[in-house]
Design brief:
The protein is mainly β. It has helices at about 1-20, 85-90; strands at about 25-30, 35-40, 45-50, 55-60, 65-75, 80, 105-115, 115-125, 130-145, 150-160, 180-190.
Length: about 190
């Protein structure tokens, strides 16, 4: 009888754990999500820009300390504040948006500190080339948005890329290889 009792307790414990662990899907909220970049321009000023169109989903299970992301960036949505520069960045020298209309980041490796996401490691596909990237969280929070009455999670993440790893070699070394990226993302619970 004691073995049956022990198995029952174990079964209830597993059910309780599974009930607490929830893999929740969030959809990227486009009005609060941008990818910003900065690079030194020929040793003078820092050039900054952003991609205005980001879509995708994030799955988050804070209890189990797991997550995954599938994020798509439209490289044609690049915005530096200069139409001529934006057009150059869209052509074959940089993003070649005619041939590669999607930049994708996929991850199944979320790291946590307590309940907070501390970093996300995944694969960035740019110009058809896949390379590993780790995004460090500088802020992360989940809250209930009172205006839409839904849960929202998001934060700021950053990394520094070597653009030549994806074959973006135009202007080297005058335009440095290192590009600082800041990802501002918010996503709404579905």
């Amino acid at each position: 009888m004691s073995k049956l009792f022990a198995l029952s307790i174990l079964g209830l414990s597993l059910c309780s754990f599974q009930a607490q662990a929830q893999n929740i899907t969030y959809e990227v909220e486009p009005d609060h999500s941008f990818v910003t970049f900065e690079v030194v321009h020929n040793g003078t000023s820092t050039t900054r820009g952003r991609f205005d169109t980001i879509t995708g989903t994030v799955q988050l299970d804070q209890a189990a300390k797991k997550g995954q992301a599938d994020i798509h960036i439209d490289p044609a949505s690049i915005n530096t504040g200069s139409k001529g520069f934006d057009e150059h960045l869209r052509d074959k020298d940089f993003f070649n948006v005619a041939a590669f209309p999607d930049v994708q980041f996929q991850s199944k490796a979320f790291a946590f500190e307590g309940d907070q996401v501390s970093s996300v490691t995944g694969t960035l596909t740019l110009l058809g080339v896949q390379q590993p990237v780790t995004l460090k969280a500088t802020h992360f929070n989940c809250y209930t948005n009172k205006r839409i009455q839904r849960d929202v999670c998001g934060g700021d993440f950053e990394t520094t890329l070597q653009r030549s790893q994806w074959g973006v070699n135009f202007g080297l070394p005058g335009i440095p290889d290192s590009v600082r990226m800041v990802i501002q993302i918010e996503a709404i619970k579905q």
